[in-house]
Amino acid sequence: MKYDTSLRPYTAKRLEEIEQADLMVGIPCYNNEATIAHVVQMVSHGLAEYYKDLRAVVVISDGGSTDDTREVAKDFQLKPWQEKIITIYRGPSGKGTALRSIFEAAQRLSVKACMVVDSDLRSISSQWVKSLLEPVLKHNCDFVTPIYTRHKYDGTITNNIVYNLTRALYGKRIRQPIGGDFAFSRNCAGYFMSQNVWDTDVARYGIDIWMTTNAIVNNFKIYQSNLGVKIHDDKDPGSQLAPMFREVVWTLFTLMEQNETRWLAVQGSETTNIYGHSSHEEPEPINVNVKALVKKFKVGYEHFGVLWKKIFLPGSFHMIQEALKLPDDKFVFEIDVWVNILYELASTFHHWPHNRYKLLELATPLYYGRVASFVNTTREMDSAQAEAVVEKQAQAFEDNKGFLINMWQRPFKEDEEMNNKLQEV
Question: Which one, of 222, 42, 14, 227, lies nearest residue 101 by Cα?
């Protein structure tokens, strides 16, 4: 079923009553009763501290929570001059549809600037409001992405995949392309809202990288803003991130196809304007079960090794086999090997029209292997030293982009045996 709007009638009527606002803060949520009050409180305090003279509306876009998220949000009292709307969005479930409703509300209220923050944040402060909104209000920025101080094992998909590909493909060194907390101008919100993607997988997942990529390729003015430490609900890469890996990589590779003419012409990379000062605070530690990660990698080889041999070049497949011989605490996937594997996977995704989700499913154990390698390599490092490893990896992706282009443009013959085996996965 298609929806012309993600706003329910009572929400549209409430926006009509408010008529106009200067600022809007959107909070997409689903079953976040433990954290939503703190997030709303910090947003309210930030708006009062930095923008008391501007009319502000807080829109809480809920995905139909089955806990007391909406009730907790309703009970929290904003400052008297601030407006609050709590709504259940219409459309496919997922963060993308929640954001669509926020884009629509921002357009209807003709706001000067809008920011969005995740609802599971424990480290958000009132300062985040200024850090995200100020580049839009004072520097004519269209799209603001965050820079966090994160533990070296937080954000493994960003560190090992998303930052690297975004930088190498589109030439922008945006450190957190899927950060979750960002700001945008009314013009940018209007562009996002007008795109015909809301009945696609973007509405369910991949919305953050979709927005960042579209902001880049459409030449919106982009800032990054230092937000300090980010603490949110824990996500162990060994147990919780497999679906996120498949969903984010699916969106990344699909965007590569849509923006092929743009990224093929990009050489090198450059940073964006950065707002605020970096934080030297050390984040809370995150424990990663390396043994479990390596086991999943080795089990993946047992299940999918025959297909890996077909997908990857002999050199890459040989290095995968060599990694199988290593003990857990010495397990390593060298950076150059990981670059080739991810580029070869992107090329196969591009050339292979069938069973693409299964293709990413069988590649998931390789992601586990890379995370285990990163943990082993950086075990004795502090977060700043581990960040240097991330930067070295990103540069390797950039330096080897010619390999990706050659793989992307090579002749490709469809393999019926491989297609049949993918259907069996």
Answer: 14
Q: Is pLDDT at 39 greater than 70 in this prediction?
A: yes
Q: Is the Cα torsion angle 57, 58, 64, 66 positive or negative in sign?
A: negative
**Cα–Cα–Cα angle for 320, 324, 330, nearest 5°?**
105
Domains and CATH numbers, the chain: 9-275 (3.90.550.10), 290-424 (no CATH)
Reported in sequence order, the residue ranges of 50-128 that DSSP labels E, i.e. its strands, are 56-62, 83-88, 113-116
Give the residue carrying structure tokens 């950065």. Answer: 274
Contacting residues for 174 by C-beta, under 8 A, at least 6 apart: 145, 163, 166, 167, 212, 216, 222, 224, 272
Q: What is the C-alpha separation between 156 and 371, in angstroms, rounded?
A: 7
SS3 171: coil
Rounded-to-integer distance, Cα 371 and Cα 367, Å? 6
Neighbours of 424 (CB within 10 A): 8
* Rounded CA separation 137/272 (Å): 17
Complete DSSP assignment for 279-334: --PPPPP----HHHHHHHHHHHHHHHHHHHHHHS-HHHHHHHHHHTTS-GGG----
pTM: 0.94
Which stretches of 130-281 are assigned E, i.e. beta strand?
A: 143-149, 182-185, 222-229, 273-275
The predicted pLDDT at position 396 comes to 98
Beta bridge partners of 61: 28, 87
